[in-house]
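Researcher: Please predict.
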Amino acid sequence: MISERSCALSKARYLLKRILRYLSWPLVFFSGLLGSYFAFASTHPMIAFATVYAAAVFVLFLLERYIPYERRWLLSDGETVNDIGHTLATKGLLQLAGLIAAVFPMYAANILQPLAALKFGLWPSDWPMVVQVALAVVTAELGLYWAHRIAHEKLFFWRFHALHHSVVRLWVINTGRFHVADSLFKLAMSQIPLYCLGAPLHVFWWLGAVTAFMGILTHCNVDMRTGIFDLVFSTPRLHRWHHSKDLREGNMNYGENVVIWDLIFRTYYNPNRPSSIDIGIKGQIAPGFLKQLAQPFTKEGVRQILGRPSRGS
């Protein structure tokens, strides 16, 4: 009797895990957007959105332990405090700065002469909000794509972006592990065109929501089967290839939210095999949050990042 009950429980767990592997990505992403809808309609939209976002992070944190993609990634790498620090410095302060700028698109556009003349005339404000958000995501993604690709192909920018790729495991907490300079570059490349076109405040809110939920999903250590979503969105499967140490795999899949520009510029990579778990960089990142922020600004720090020998060695 006990054996039969144990067998039934094992089958139920197996079935639940199988269902979660296929449903966890759309459930987290689309429920996050649904929660954002109610948050943005509330009297305190930013606080409400932060609550929705925190709930999504917590759900992924639990899923990482129930259906992990790589069990070794559950072990500590000693970088959790630094990961949280970079997340607060980039995803926190920079998103707040971006929000403030979004509230005043006229002032943001005024400094972009001679493009300032375009600031209100071209955005289709009368279109349904869902269409405006889709247009904003694709438009911003072009800037994100090239900022990301440039960060990989130009050593000056790689010195900042390498911090993000220095992780040896992916999990929901190191989603925001970006150098401030790297994030500022991406923020400018993605949002300035929207300022110039005169996109309204709520479009920026929704763009931020899509990017926030996509970010925690692409970095989570959850065994998600994303299937057809891989042809539209940047999924955990695609992003794990991007973190591969093998540059033939790592210098692909630059899309942060959608993969349209990877498909157009032929950097889409999704072979029919499990995505890479051998991730990281050739060089070394300094220990400690403040040292990591300062490292790209010194000659010795850049040599460490690039994996080049120090002078005199």
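Model: The chain has one domain: 79-306.
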